[in-house]
Amino acid sequence: xxxxxxxxxxxxxxxxxxxxxxxxxxxxxxxxxxxxxxxxxxxxxxxxxxxxxxxxxxxxxxxxxxxxxxxxxxxxxxxxxxxxxxxxxxxxxxxxxxxxxxxxxxxxxxxxxxxxxxxxxxxxxxxxxxxxxxxxxxxxxxxxxxxxxxxxxxxxxxxxxxxxxxxxxxxxxxxxxxxxxxxxxxxxxxxxxxxxxxxxxxxxxxxxxxxxxxxxxxxxxxxxxxxxxxxxxxxxxxxxxxxxxxxxxxxxxxxxxxxxxxxxxxxxxxxxxxxxxxxxxxxxxxxxxxxxxxxxxxxxxxxxxxxxxxxxxxxxxxxxxxxxxxxxxxxxxxxxxxxxxxxxxxxxxxxxxxxxxxxxxxxxxxxxxxxxxxxxxxxxxxxxxxxxxxxxxxxxxxxxxxxxxxxxxxxxxxxxxxxxxxxxxxxxxxxxxxxxxxxxxxxxxxxxxxxxxxxxxxxxxxxxxxxxxxxxxxxxxxxxxxxxxxxxxxxxxxxxxxxxxxxxxxxxxxxxxxxxxxxxxxxxxxxxxxxxxxxxxxxxxxxxxxxxxxxxxxxxxxxxxxxxxxxxxxxxxxxxxxxxxxxxxxxxxxxxxxxxxxxxxxxxxxxxxxxxxxxxxxxxxxxxxxxxxxxxxxxxxxxxxxxxxxxxxxxxxxxxxxxxxxxxxxxxxxxxxxxxxxxxxxxxxx
Length: 686
Known about the structure:
Blueprint: H1 5-22, H2 34-56, H3 61-90, H4 93-107, H5 111-118, H6 135-156, H7 160-178, H8 193-197, H9 204-219, H10 225-245, H11 258-270, H12 276-281, H13 284-291, H14 293-310, H15 317-343, H16 350-372, H17 374-378, H18 389-398, E1 405-409, E2 412-418, E3 425-430, H19 432-448, E4 451-460, E5 463-464, E6 471-473, H20 477-483, H21 486-495, E7 502-506, H22 509-512, E8 542-546, E9 549-550, H23 555-570, E10 575-578, H24 588-599, E11 606-609, H25 610-630, E12 635-638, H26 641-645, E13 652-657, E14 660-661, H27 671-685
């Protein structure tokens, strides 16, 4: 197999945008598709190598796997080992478990399957805090390295024509599965969600490189210099265009991935000596970057992720550039002193490679398991005396687990808690904000002798309705028929309890009633006073619905969705409408820990202006106020602003008060905050 320096130059063109994209540079909004370029290159190079050796009768399967181990494992193991102490001293206890899972999965080349199963969004801001999330692409590539040679060894016995035929059939199937299927009703990987599909729907890309290798070896016709010139320029333009035109909203995997992958094929096929693109890609600096591209890819994400844990989410531009340069410096060191020596069979014997590879796998699997244990989390150096992590974990695990008696009927499930012997009954419905307050409500109901019926699920043919009933998220054509039945199912469920004293409605209102462009910008929010937004969930459009169908997402339709819910509830039972719980905008544990890192002291108090709360929730609260004023005989407000923030325009909303946290994360209350909600509800009931 002849060395092609332009391929290393193409590797540089692929890795640079990936790194700059992860660093947050907006000019490379589509830089993430650099991995798609890598997949095609890998498929081409591996297929070319194997075919050349098979034609010469020199191919040995174990020898191939040994070379892959020499190429991939030493640098990967080095990066994993370096990440471990940084994770231990940087991560809060809650993050150690996730890191342990990713450490083990990365070493076993299964991280793409792990992230797919967890439906971890690659573009979620939370992913930017994961130092090993980029190993998903290495895992998919290694899975290809394991399976493709085995398949080709079997197919080769039937001859080259049959080999190409069966590989083409297989490519056609996975191409249809991963690309053409995305043009129709949902993606074939919708059972994983579009987030999960991101990590496993690219198997066709290395096989596109395989077919390119077969084409060049067996079918490539002679082309004129002008044709090569035009094709190579077109291929380069397609690749670069995808880097600057694509963004986080571009659907990948799917039809869009054809732009960078087909462009890469054109570059591989037509970049011949004498073409402009060959001169560009053979430039010594690009070739040099290409040679260390694997190590650069390995190092860049841990550097950026650990830096984000020290800064508040966004790394300043100057520091981001320094970190990118640092990743290349580390890449050269690991390439020169780790990659090259391990590739030399004279320096490192095959037996040493096999033994060290197995030992490394066992070590990182064991270390990953240890990071997931309670022992590791309990002994983390990043604990706080005023915010006990164990109590937070217990609160999360027990959140919503309060019921003494359950009952299920078609399309509705409910449970009972509080004083089960009481004749007085209240009915509750809501989302995780209700769950967070449920233990305090249970204690309050038992104290005054109230029985509580909690509607835990309203369903249509097994599918859950939104807790706000008249809005849905990312409604597709296949479930529209089910979604529009939710209002009737909700009214039917509530009518079962017409003898109840009151109906209590508590939701995270503002993220469930908004339209594109406002009234709030996204699900997360930047708390301007604290400057502490950490995990800003990408905008997910909420769509208004009613029994007639899905409605256009307008301000008026979102307003009507709120009114429909309030009408449906209050026309059946007297209703207590719990106004929005103040959202913090960041994880108070992380914020407190960073304060401790900076000052050596933990926070005794933490608050933000109530004006932040008013601004974020104004759309919903204005509609609530108007409806309550017009229907005071059947609906009563439970306003939480005064309890959490106090009265007046200059009031401050408490996050930590007297060293006691009111929140367990950026929007769910902890026990002291739950007590405040329960107190306000009880005042309204009494």
